Task: inverse folding
């Protein structure tokens, strides 16, 4: 059982680090244990069995010692914050830790005032209020959303980082259960005219951000999502309704959705021409590169964790692909010379993140560990050299190459891709 | 390498095939049939049952006026461009008031997006510089009108946006000093980067693209 292993290693590492300090009553996670290797453990101020606990409350809160945080890039209208991947468990991202990427801030919108206009090449142009949308048959699915700029911090050969955490590198990735009405249901309601092949989706933010999406995707698995992890979608994720395009780049999944125009061609908005296009080495620029290809990252051990001890550790991380299911994740603990299959921890869902685990008996010597994911199309997560060879080094999106971590003999962990080049 | 093809009206025709590619994705089994979605089923369920009515009737009809209120986008063939015009000279005045502080005196300095490629730049890729990379000038009009200036979006008149667009095209050497830009002349602008853009050729499978 993974849970049992976690406890075992936690206790062992913790006992090592804290020199046998009594831990009775404390629930230690492995991450606490590793941190205990570098910082003193403060015992709880009182014995909780000798004082009454607190009362029930209307809204819960996190444990005092568990305060994961998004990482904010800059306080600006067009900015981002990143999900603390290395602090999370399972696959669902707590909604208040879902990454953010806004192009003109977060609009204040009241659900009762919000309207969605659907028009263009349709039989019946219509306006839907939220109460209308909620009355349509509902759908729900778990899937990831990832900004296609994620991982760009480790693509430039001359600026390969070392002290960078999974959050800093790949934190523009989150997974939620999304609930809403299928876009196909709404398009059926308005009646798409023959000849239509695209839609334009537009947000109600101060950038009125728009993206063109092929009609085939709109009619396939696209959703107008108003729910996120059991509650109303958060303002940062597009309240009261966003476009959900499972497996596709986050930018196209327009938040605060207020207009859909059915068209027979793309609109060529700023965010599908100037941005979110990929200049290739042959002088062309790849456009409408929507799908997020297979990717994985080891979230433990990773920077800034420290392994206090050689011996058994469980490597774990996340893998995902926009093309369906992850079918395999392999781990190398010798810098890519040999590979072994990691265990995929259910649920293994299409276009969602899956957690992988791999037991590793570290001999205490310096090494580099990597992961590589394979998806159901047979696509294998490439090396950075393969991406450079295919695309050149001038692209700003879709950096899904293999990630690596260097474990030093003293147990410190740093981003290790530069060590392999 | 397949590039954009255009019909006589300047429309992109190759893009129609992009949607067809999407249909080859593993999850092509759509919800229209009222069945479980995804390749093996069970990940998600599209709830529209086979006996669902053709129309539910939730929502209201949108009048032409209602559509016109929000239908703000401009397409490369000029669809959506409003009446009006603006001169390079007028654009310079507005630019210096509303744009220069973020985009620089000559469009090369930043700190935000550069409009003009500075003299000594690597020819490819040119960053996101408007004059060197953007495929359509209509996109500049569309984006400026909807999103700029950043602190007061939507505050520019259509004539203002034509004028700013004219001035930035002039900074790029694509319009003379005495030019006036309107919908017809804007659509006629051919951006240098236009034919560089190609559809996504990644399809999954073993090949790295």
Result:
């Amino acid at each position: 059982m993974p849970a049992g292993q976690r406890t075992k290693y936690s206790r062992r590492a913790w006992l090592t680090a804290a020199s046998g300090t009594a831990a009775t009553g404390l629930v230690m996670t492995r991450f606490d244990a590793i941190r205990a290797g570098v910082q003193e453990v403060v015992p709880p101020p009182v014995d909780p069995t000798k004082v009454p606990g607190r009362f029930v409350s209307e809204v819960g809160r996190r444990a005092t010692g568990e305060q994961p945080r998004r990482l904010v890039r800059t306080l600006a209208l067009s900015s981002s914050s990143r999900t603390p991947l290395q602090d999370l468990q399972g696959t669902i991202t707590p909604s208040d830790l879902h990454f953010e990427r806004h192009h003109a801030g977060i609009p204040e919108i009241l659900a009762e005032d919000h309207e969605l206009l659907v028009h263009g090449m349709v039989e019946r142009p219509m306006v839907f209020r939220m109460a209308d949308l909620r009355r349509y048959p509902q759908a729900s699915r778990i899937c990831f959303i990832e900004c296609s700029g994620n991982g760009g911090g480790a693509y430039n050969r001359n600026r390969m980082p070392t002290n960078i955490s999974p959050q800093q590198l790949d934190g523009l990735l989150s997974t939620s259960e999304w609930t809403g009405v299928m876009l196909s249901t709404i398009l059926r309601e308005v009646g798409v005219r023959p000849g239509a092949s695209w839609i334009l989706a537009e947000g109600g933010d101060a950038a009125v951000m728009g993206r063109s999406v092929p009609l085939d995707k709109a009619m396939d698995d696209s959703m107008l999502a108003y729910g996120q992890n059991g509650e109303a979608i958060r303002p940062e994720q597009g309240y009261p309704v966003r476009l959900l395009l499972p497996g596709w780049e986050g930018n196209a999944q327009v938040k605060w959705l207020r207009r859909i125009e059915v068209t027979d061609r793309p609109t060529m908005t700023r965010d599908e021409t100037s941005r979110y296009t990929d200049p290739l080495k042959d002088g062309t620029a790849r456009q409408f590169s929507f799908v997020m290809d297979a990717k994985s990252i080891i979230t433990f051990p990773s920077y800034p964790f420290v392994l206090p001890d050689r011996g058994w550790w469980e490597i774990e991380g996340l893998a995902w692909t926009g093309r369906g299911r992850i079918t395999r994740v392999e781990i190398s603990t010798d810098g890519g010379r040999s590979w072994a299959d990691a265990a995929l921890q259910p649920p293994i869902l299409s276009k969602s993140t899956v957690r992988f685990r791999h037991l590793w008996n570290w001999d205490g010597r310096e090494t580099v560990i990597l992961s590589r994911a394979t998806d159901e199309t047979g696509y294998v997560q490439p090396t950075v050299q393969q991406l450079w060879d295919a695309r050149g080094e001038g692209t700003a999106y879709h950096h899904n190459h293999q990630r690596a971590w260097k474990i030093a003999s003293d147990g410190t962990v740093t981003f290790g891709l530069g060590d392999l080049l | 390498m397949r590039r954009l093809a255009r019909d006589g009206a300047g429309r992109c025709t190759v893009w129609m095939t992009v949607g067809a590619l999407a249909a080859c994705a593993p999850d092509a089994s759509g919800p229209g049939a009222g069945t479980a979605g995804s390749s093996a089923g069970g990940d998600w369920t599209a709830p529209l049952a086979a006996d669902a009515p053709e129309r539910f009737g939730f929502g209201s009809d949108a009048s032409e006026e209602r559509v016109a209120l929000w239908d703000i986008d401009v397409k490369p063939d000029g669809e959506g461009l409003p009446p009006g015009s603006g001169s390079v000279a007028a654009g310079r005045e507005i630019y210096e008031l509303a744009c220069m502080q973020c985009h620089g005196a000559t469009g090369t300095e930043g700190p935000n997006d550069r409009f003009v490629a500075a003299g000594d730049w690597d020819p490819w890729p040119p960053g996101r510089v408007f004059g060197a990379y953007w495929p359509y000038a209509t996109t500049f009009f569309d984006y400026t009108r909807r999103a700029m200036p950043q602190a007061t979006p939507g505050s520019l008149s259509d004539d203002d946006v034509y004028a700013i667009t004219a001035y930035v095209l002039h900074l790029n050497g694509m319009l003379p000093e005495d030019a006036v830009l309107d919908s017809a002349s804007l659509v006629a602008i051919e951006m240098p980067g236009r034919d560089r853009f190609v559809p996504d050729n990644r399809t999954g499978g073993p090949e790295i693209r």
User: Anything to note?
Assistant: The longest strand of chain A covers residues 173-182. Residues 1-29 of chain A have pLDDT under 50 and may be disordered. The first helix of chain A runs from residue 2 to 18.
